[in-house]
Amino acid sequence: FAQQQEESFAFHRCPSLLEKMLRLWAILVCFLLGVFHATAFVSRPSSRLSVSVSDPAKAWIRANSVTPRSMLPLNAMAIPFPGNSTTTSSPTSIPYGRFDRSASTVAAADQDCILEIDGQRYNLTKWAKAHPGGVKVLHKFHNKDASKAFHAADHSTAAYAMLKDFWIGPVEGATTDGASTMITHQALAGATVGLPPTRSRPRWIQKLFTREDPIGIHKYMGFFALAHFIFRFGQLYFGDPSAGYGTRLGKGPHIGPALCLIPHAVLALSSLIFHTVPKERVVGKPMIWQEYRIHNIAFGIRSVVCTFLAWLSTYHNHAPSFRRLAVVGSCAVALASQITADWGTRNFRASDVESTTATMPYWEGCSLQTQKRFKIFYAYSQFMATLACIAVVNPAWSLSVLLAIQLASLFMTLVRKGIFTSKMYHIGYTITLLMPFAVGMRSNLWMPVGAFPGMMVMGAALFTLRARFRINKYALWLPIYAARIAIGDSIWMPHNVW
Fold this sequence. Notes:
The protein is mainly alpha-helical. Helices cover 54% and strands 2% of the residues.
């Protein structure tokens, strides 16, 4: 084994052209598989508007001078037009199968929520669940004047501008004379009447430093995390299969990579400073809500701690005490993350038929078959992520798992800002989920052993038991954790090569 290790070191120091081509091929195949998986068998939407509007509805729009562009999509707003039914339904009923569920692209019929603000009426019925302050405070002012409460809440400029999407007309008998803070539909369309005074800071700075994050700690940690991922995966591709967290090239481990994990943990925890995250999932778009945030924090911290433990074992030359600490600690952290995620689900999930991934919204025109493909791959990747974290061999495995977790939040933020579409989110998220597979393939190119293929087989078996036979999650994982601790490293890749 020592001779094989020395030969591997020599082979690694002077990579041949063939090895470089194999590395490039492995990475390209992973990315192309992600793109193909995301775009294959996608039913293209018709170029025409898929929602038919009856003549009474068109007449209602013309009479109220509201253009479709200034409104939410008709199938999402479900405004009660004259002569139309106000009841909306999901395009498909929710089957019993987990991966056959479809996200709600059409909002269900909810309690009416029409508010009066400065003499204007706004129909917030279909958006009420996305209100960061909760739906109850909006229902409290149904068919009432909410002007005083609205201004007292110190809403942002974006909140004022967003009202135009829900405007349905002026209050009967309302007058605008002498009302300096009157919000009219014309003002919301472009004037500055009723909007908070503009600041001298550039617009990009106002977006970067929000009121909830005045010093930009979350943004700065996000920029660092993104740059750190780029550096580590570049290091992985151009020479070091452990991305700087192992003993490659004979340099030995360094404390610098471990310190670089701290901003990732701060990034995950600093998301709690944002109090405007809606409790319910936003209908129609993959955007952050409170249950998802708890899951993101739990599994993000899991990857950070497991990467640190793998590095710690390497840093102390895999001394038995530190090696056992790494194995036991990684299993304990993985179990704690699952318990924390379940706690978040119990306290923040609005519907028992929803799931953070199984009912994630997709783009318009995405077929149910394509959605099912995404969901199956997402679920399988979750099993692989947990196995990568408790393996405690190559630290780059658990670090690559963190990439998908933290970039998913970035993609959802870009969707909220209108920069990303739902389709771009799912394609981007799929590519990030493929990175742990790229790390495993890169490791096998450096030292061909059966650990990573064995993990893939084990992940498929666990996924099948969970998805098809509905075996309890803890009944699956507790024996795996116990076996990992009891058996040790005998069935895994030799850890002392990292």
